[in-house]
Amino acid sequence: MAVKEILESLDWGPAPESDKFAREWLDQHGPSFGMYINGQWVTPESGDNFESFNPATGELLGTISQAGDSEVNSAVAAARAALPGWSSSPGHVRARYLYAIARQVQKHHRLLAVIETLDNGKPIRETRDADVPLVARHFYHHAGWAQLFDETFPGYGPVGVCGQVIPWNFPLLMLAWKIAPALAAGNTVVLKPAEFTSISALVFAEICNSVGLPPGVVNIVTGDGKTGALITEHDDIDKVAFTGSTEVGRIIRKATAGSGKALTLELGGKSPFIVFEDADIDSAIEGLVNAIWFNQGQVCCAGSRLLVQESIAERFHEKLRSRMAKLRIGNPMNKAIDMGAIVDESQRKTIEDLCKLGCDEGGEMWQPSTELPDKGCFFPPTLFTNVSPSSTIVQEEVFGPVLVSLTFRNHKEAISLANNTRYGLAGSVWSQDIDTALEVARSIRAGAIWVNCTNQFDANAGFGGYRESGFGREGGREGMHAYMRPLSNGTKTEKMESRGEQKSVTKSSSSNATESVDRTAKMYIGGKQKRPDGGYTMDVTGPSGTVGQVGRGNRKDIRDAVEAASGATKWATTNAHTRSQILYYIAENLEQRSAEFAARISAMTGSTTAQAESEVADAVSEWFRWAAWADKYDGAVHETTMHGLVLALNEPLGVVGVTCPDERPLFGFTRLVAPLLAMGNSVIAVPSESNPLAATDLYQVLETSDLPAGVLNIVTGIHSEFVPALAAHDGVDSMWVGVGDVDEVQIASVSNMKRVWKVNMDASGDEYLRQSTHVKNIWLPHGV
Amino acid sequence: MAAESRNRGTPLDLEVINSIRINRSALERRASSLPKRRAVKSDWQVAWMLHAIRCIDLTTLAGDDTPGRVLRISQKAIRPIRTDLLSALDLDVNTIHCASVCVYHNMVETVSKSVQGSPVGTCAVSTGFPAGHIPHHQKLEQIEASVAAGADEIDIVVSRSNVLRNDWQALYDEVKDFRHSCGDAHLKTILATGELASLKQVAQASQVCMMAGADFIKTSTGKESVNATLPVGLVMARAIRDFYERTGNKVGFKPAGGISKAKDAVTWLAMMKEELGEEWMRPNLFRIGASSLLGDIERQLEFHLSGHYSAANRHPMA
Question: Are strands A156-158 and A523-525 parallel, antiparallel or unpaired?
Answer without folding.
Answer: unpaired
